[in-house]
Recover the amino acids of this structure.
């Protein structure tokens, strides 16, 4: 990304180049200086920063950081917990995250300024990243009880009133999403109802009224569904189908399946998202870095009806999964040009213009803090 920018600047007259460099000096070349931080820097961006500056892929000791949208006021929020991943509460006031060592992970929560960190679980189980309920009062998450058994659970955001919703034996459940009204959970399971195959289910948030949404489509239209994304009205579910080679959608009732996009050339889809405008989807084809070949990540957007596929990598040089601000005005992403380079955080407008580097000391997994406009 920065290589492309330098390449383009090298063709400009010297006086114009100097003018551009001065104009962008705060956000691009001095992003950690706080002097120009104003209300215009909202929304803020959280991200993970690895304490291992050697970029050794075998060591990942991530802390959570947060910064203003222009890269100023970079502030460390967690210390020495080895954070795996994180998510904001709907109002942006809290951050829930998974952290741990040696394949043992716990659920933590803290205020978005890093204060009042609490460990909500403290046992030998492996926990998956929780999802806040839309009202922000509870957390829904997965717990790996043993190798063959993973259940979906719910608890208050203070760790009390933990309830096992699925309480299954020798089956696994993977939480997918919560409907916008907070009444239902969408998840993936190999429950016997699906004949031991991976299928998509819906149930009440109380754990009752379990319905298999895709069992009637096995071996014909739907196989190995994952990453369910629910529309804002709660009526439709978009998901990755056929083990990553297709995007499909289905009603919340399990009816009206539609195949939207079929992947060419045996590439697999990852990181499916419904954009904040609820009219577009984004996804990536992960890149490959090995001694034999280097294939950059390919980033795409497509209309929610499956039309007008756009390759953002070809059009704008973007090679990383994207995170969108809730007002749909900004995009943030991390980028590294090779596996030996520390990834950095970038920002651009929703029209993919004005790509600016925000960090100099590394960063990955950026997310916009939800705020009210």
């Amino acid at each position: 990304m920065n290589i492309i920018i330098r390449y383009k600047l090298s063709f400009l007259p010297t006086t114009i180049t100097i003018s551009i460099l001065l104009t962008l000096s705060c956000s691009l070349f001095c992003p950690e200086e706080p002097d120009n931080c104003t209300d215009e820097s909202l929304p803020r961006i959280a991200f993970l920063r690895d304490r291992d500056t050697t970029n050794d892929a075998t060591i990942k000791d991530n802390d959570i950081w947060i910064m203003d949208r222009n890269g100023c006021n970079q502030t460390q929020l967690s210390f020495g917990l080895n954070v795996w991943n994180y998510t904001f509460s709907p109002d942006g006031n809290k951050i829930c995250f998974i952290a741990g060592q040696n394949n043992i992970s716990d659920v933590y929560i803290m205020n978005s300024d890093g204060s009042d960190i609490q460990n909500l679980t403290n046992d030998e189980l492996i926990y998956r990243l929780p999802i806040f309920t839309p009202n922000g009062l509870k957390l829904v998450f997965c717990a790996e009880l043993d190798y063959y058994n993973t259940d979906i659970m719910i608890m208050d955001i203070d760790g009390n009133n933990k309830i096992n919703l699925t309480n299954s034996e020798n089956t696994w459940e993977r939480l997918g999403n919560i409907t916008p009204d907070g009444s239902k959970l969408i998840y993936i399971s190999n429950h016997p109802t699906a004949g031991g195959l991976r299928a998509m289910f819906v149930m009440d948030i109380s754990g009752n009224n379990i319905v298999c949404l895709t069992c009637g489509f096995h071996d014909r239209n739907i196989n190995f569904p994952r990453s369910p994304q629910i529309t804002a009205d709660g009526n439709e579910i978009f998901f990755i189908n056929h083990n990553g080679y297709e995007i499909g959608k289905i009603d919340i009732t399990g009816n009206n399946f539609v195949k939207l996009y079929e992947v060419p050339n045996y590439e697999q889809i990852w990181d499916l998202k419904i954009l904040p405008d609820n009219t577009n989807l984004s996804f990536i084809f992960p890149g490959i870095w090995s001694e034999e070949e280097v294939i950059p990540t390919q980033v795409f957007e497509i209309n929610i009806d499956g039309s007008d596929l756009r390759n953002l990598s070809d059009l704008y040089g973007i090679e990383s999964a994207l995170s969108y601000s809730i007002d749909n005005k900004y995009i943030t992403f991390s980028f590294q040009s090779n596996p030996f380079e520390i990834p950095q955080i970038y920002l651009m407008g929703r029209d993919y213009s004005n790509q600016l580097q925000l960090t100099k000391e590394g960063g990955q997994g950026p997310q916009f803090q939800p705020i009210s406009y």
